[in-house]
Structures are given as C-alpha cells and as structure tokens.
Specification:
Length: 271
C-alpha cells in the first residue's frame, strides 16, 4: 500500500507495470466531486465514472437512458476531486455502437470537456471500428466483456454470462481482439472465475473483474453497492463494506427529531 501511495499519478503504463509485477489493481466507481476525493485519497488506482450513474444517481432501471452530456457532467465533477487515480469514463449507450465517427466525437468530448484520462466501451468484435477510430486520436480505451449492461435487452437477464462453450470461446476471441486492437485493459463482468482466469493469462493487458473471481489482475465494484447505499442489489460477488443506507438514515432521523424537539440548535450552535 505504501508503495502505491508513492506513485504520484496512475497512468495506463502504471497499470501495465502492475500486471507485470503481479500487483493487483483496485478500481471503484464515482460520480461526483466529494466521493471522488474520498476514494482517490484512499489510494484507489482507477476511478470509473460508470454509466451505472444511470441507476444509482438517476434512479433508472437500466444504464441505457443516460446521455453523453450527463456523463460529461459526472466525469468533470469527478476529475476535479482526483489527484492520483486514472479516471476512466463510460461511453454511454447510443454514442458509439455502429457509428465510429460518433464514437470518436463522443470520446473527444469526454476527454476535452471533462478532462478524463480514458474511455470504456462495452463489446467485442462488433465495436472494433469504433475502438480503432477512438485510438487514432490518442485516447486510451478500456474494453468491457461478459455481462455488458448496455445490451440487457439482448440478454434479457442479468445472470452469469459465458457459461456455455460457444459464448466462452467468443469471449476469449473478443478479449484477444481487444488487446490486438490496442485497448489498455479489459473489464470482465459476471463470468465464471475459471474463464476470467484463462483470459487474464492469455492477454498481456490488465484484466479487471467484477463478479469474475480472484484470478484476474484487479477488481472493480460500484461504490454505492460496496458502501451499502443501495440495499436491494445483492449479487453473490458483492462484498458490502458498510451499510451506509441505514447509517445515513439513522443520522437523518436523529436530525429530524432534534429539530422537532428544539434540541438543535443549542446555545453553542448559534451566533
Ligand atoms: O458502469 C459501471 O459501473 C461499470 C462497472 C460495473 C464495471 O461498468
């Protein structure tokens, strides 16, 4: 940990070195300035401005409704709170699929207007052209395979992906393709641990898992889930480090009681 703190700024190159040295990569989502500042100061390597903002910040059922403008708003807030971590931003649904020109324009807006360091895109061979075009502008790209929530209506369910041979083979091929195309890292979401381990061994770039077991090069979670701000979402892979929903609720209840009972403010809390 102290070795990590000595690093002034995490870059895509640092992550590559971590993989080579067998140092695990920590990654967590953030969507606003204050939380980004806390997470960054705790020594996080990568902060992801995930399109999960659509769920946990805006209350949508899926990640599909969030817009590029909203992602830029979240990302610029996060970037202002971060000194050390690499800030990666999700390209939202509808801004890169089947349109590499739009993909490049969207990625450039995220880098220019938010000051982000890299973008993340969901998918394999079907979005190769978009990835290639973004890379021509010198923008680092992180891939995302396995359960890709922007395709939820194609899958129809959030259950574990690539359990069958055909899908597992396609996932391995896609991971190799993403590496060849020039992605600097890949997120693998909700796939069998043995498959994720195989992918992490097959590619030289870092593989970061969420619900993909411990055989990969790093782990990512949604901050609202690991802090227990969300309550209903309880997948097996999630470890809750706090129950913030309950803690914040009880503090707020206490405040309401104090106001009603005139216990707040007291003599020291006024001018
Ligand atoms: O949007 C997000 O938070 C993500 C993570 C689940 C990896 O993509």
């Amino acid at each position: 940990m102290s070795v990590h703190k000595e690093i002034k700024r995490i870059t895509t190159r640092t992550l590559q070195e971590f993989k080579q040295q067998g140092i695990k990569i920590s990654m967590l989502t953030a969507y606003d300035f204050s939380m980004a500042k806390i997470i960054d100061s705790a020594g996080m390597d990568v902060i992801l401005v995930g399109d999960s903002a659509s769920n946990v910040m805006a209350g949508h059922e899926t990640t599909l409704p969030i817009t590029l403008e909203q992602m830029i708003y979240h990302a610029s807030s996060v970037v202002r709170g971060v000194e050390r971590a690499l800030v990666v931003v999700d390209l939202p649904f509808g801004y890169y699929q089947g349109n590499s020109r739009l993909a490049l324009e969207s990625a450039i807006r995220i880098m220019k207007e938010a000051g982000a360091h890299a973008v993340k895109l969901e998918g394999g061979s079907e979005i190769r052209e978009s990835i290639e075009r973004i890379l021509t502008a010198g923008i680092p790209v992180m891939g995302h395979l396995g359960l890709t929530p922007q395709s939820i209506y194609k899958f129809g369910t959030y259950t574990v992906r690539a359990k069958e041979d055909v899908e597992a083979r396609k996932l391995i091929e896609d991971a190799i393709l993403l590496e060849k195309t020039g992605c600097f890292a890949i997120v693998l979401e909700k796939i069998p641990a043995h498959l994720a381990t195989e992918v992490a061994k097959k590619v030289q770039i870092p593989v970061i898992g969420i619900g993909a077991g411990g055989g990969v090069d790093g782990q990512v979670l949604v901050s609202h889930d690991m802090l227990g701000i969300t309550k209903e979402f309880k997948p097996r892979f999630l470890r809750r480090y706090l129950n913030l929903f309950d803690e914040v609720q009880s503090a707020v209840k206490q405040y309401v009681d104090d106001v009603k009972s005139t216990n707040f403010p007291n003599n020291e809390e006024q001018y």
